[in-house]
Amino acid sequence: MDPAIDRNNIAQMKLEAAKAAFFASGGRQQLIPIGVGKDSLATPGAEPPKYGYAKIAAKPTKRGRLITDDEKAALAARLMECKAAGMTRYKASKHIGISETLCRRLIADYALDFPAAS
To answer: Record's superkingdom (predicted)?
Structure first.
């Protein structure tokens, strides 16, 4: 037979013996030897299985990143290059890889002449 089945049969016999001892003692609580019950299947030093959802590391995003003044100035210059190429604000922000909100803030902070498409 399979060794796993033999081990489970032995564990089952130990549990039956523990149950019989419990009921023979009148149902009083007593010390159950290690290796019987919950402790029987755990290997020494092994961590118990985790239930539920595992914590999955989220992909890093650009949201909430800190942008220095030098980076802002470089982005503003790239925005003006996109305007010269005939792009709209939306296309320029996607081309550069920034959000539309940041694009609007850069236009307002640097007083860029970049009108919204009508």
So the answer is: Bacteria
Characterise 76 by phi-psi region: left (phi > 0), alpha (psi -120 to 50), beta (else): alpha
Query: Tens of pLDDT along the chain (118 residues)?
Result: 688 888 889 889 988 888 888 788 777 766 766 666 655 555 666 666 666 666 677 777 767 778 899 999 999 999 999 999 999 999 999 999 998 999 999 999 999 988 887 5
Where does residue 67 fall: left (phi above 0), alpha (psi -120 to 50 degrees), or beta otherwise?
A: beta
Residues in the chain: 118
What crossing angle do the helices spanning 100-109 and 89-96 adopt, rounded to 10°?
110
DSSP string over 49-60: PP-SPPPPPPPP
Angle at 106 between CA 105 and CA 109, to 5 degrees: 80
Q: Within 10 A of 88 (CB to CB), how many other CB atoms are there?
A: 14
The model carries a pTM of: 0.47
| Rounded Cα–Cα distance for residues 14 and 40 (Å) | 10
